[in-house]
Amino acid sequence: MKKQTTFITSLILSLSLSSFAQDNDSTVIRKFFNESLSNGKSYEWLRDLTSNVGPRLSGSEGAKKAVQWGKTLLESGGYDRVFLQDVMVPHWVRGAKEEGYILDGKQKIKVPLVALGGSIATPKKGITAEVIEVKTFQELRALGKEKCEGKIIFFNRPMDPTKINTFEAYGQAGDQRRSGANEASKLGAIGVIIRSLSSTENDFPHTGSMVYATGVPLIPAAALSTNAATLLSKTLKENPNTKFYFKQSCETLPDAPSHNVVAEIKGSEHPEEIIVVGGHLDSWDLAQGAHDDGTGIVQSMEVARLFKNLGIKPRHTIRIVLFMNEENGNRGGVKYAELAKQNNEKHIFALESDNGGFTPRGFGMQGASAELLAKVQSYRTLLAPYGLHEIERGGGGVDIGPLAPQGTVLIGFKPDAQRYFEYHHASNDTFDTVNQRELEMGAASMASLIYLLDNLK
After folding, report:
1. What's this model's pTM, rounded to 2 decimal places?
2. Of residues 98, 326, 327, 440, which has the active-site annotation?
C-alpha cells in the first residue's frame, strides 16, 4: 500500500509539473504575440529596407548598403555580439532594359521579358528566329537537332495549378529555367525563352537563376510574363512560322566581396550550442525584394528583439544570421557552414524564413529523429491558438541547408503559400504587398518555436 501511495503521489507531482510547464510556456508564447502585434518593429524595418536600400542583388551597391543596414540595426539591439563574415559572391548585372517582340507576319507585338540571372547577353542587335514551343526536355529531345538548329526554343510549361502546395508546383516547373538553355543549346538552338514560374496570369515576368553546363555552347535565356507566354503560344498555333526577337545586355563580372551579418545572444546554460534563425539579405534586382526575402530578414531580427525586450534569457546561444547570396549561388550559406565546422561550433537547430510574409501556418522539419519530431508535434496544443497547425517533415531552407551534414536539424517557417508566386522574383515584389499583421504574426510564431526548442527536455 505504501508503494502504491508513493507511486500515485509521484504521478500527481509529475503531472502537476508538466501542467505548470505548459502553463508557463503558454504565457511566454502569449507575450511574444502580444509584444509583436502591439509594438513590433518588423514592418517598419521592412519599410526602411525596401524603400531606402531597395534591390540588393549580390555584388551590387544595394547589397553593400544592405549589409551596413543590417549591421547597424543589429548593433542598436544591444546583443552580446554583432559581426560580419566575409564571403566572395557572384556579380551578375542586368544592364539595359530587355526588349522582346512577337513577329507575326507584318505584326510586331511588344511583350514583357527579362533576362534570367546568370545568362549571357544577346548580340548587340538582338536575335531573331523562328520559335519552337515545347513543354518538357523529353519533347525537345524528340524533335532532334534538325528541327531545333538556329531556332529559339520556347519552354511553355506552367506551374501545375492543381497542386495545393505551390512550392511543389514551382519545383516541378523549375528545370526549364535552370537548365533549359543547356538542353536547347545541345540541339543547336540560338536562344531560349521560358514561361515565367508564376501561379498567376499577369504581365510581370519573373527572373531567377540559370546555370550553364560545362562544354555546352552558351546561349541567352530570358523569361516571358505568363500573359505573354499564353499569347505567343496562341500565335504559334495560328501561325507556326511566327518569329521572336529579343535583346538583352547582361554580363557576369568578377566575384565581389560581401558579408553575412550575424548577431548573437549568448546562452545562459549551453552557450556552446547554437540555434540559428535567419533569412537571406540579397534579392533580385527587379524590385524591392519585400517577400523574397525582406520579410524573412526582419522577422528573424524581430525574434532577437522579442527575447531581449521581454527579458527571456535563452539556455542555448541564439544567432540571427542575414545570409548573403541565396538567390544566385548560396555562397553565404556555404561560407557560414564552412566557418561553423572550422570553429568546431555545434549547431543544434537552424530555422529559416524564406517563403514570404503571409499568414503563418506552421513549420517543416528536416533531419529530425522520429522521437524529436513527435516531441515538437506535441507543441501543437500551444501553437494551434495562433493558427500554427502544420508541424511535419519538410524542407528547411537554401541558406541553412549546408549545415545539414553537421547534424543540424533544419526547420523551414511555413506561411500560407497561395500568393507567394505572384511576386517571387518579379518587379511587383514590393513593400505594399506585405500585410503588417501577417508579418508580425510570423515573427512571433518563429520566436515561439525557438523558445520551445531552447527549453526542449
Report:
1. 0.93
2. 326
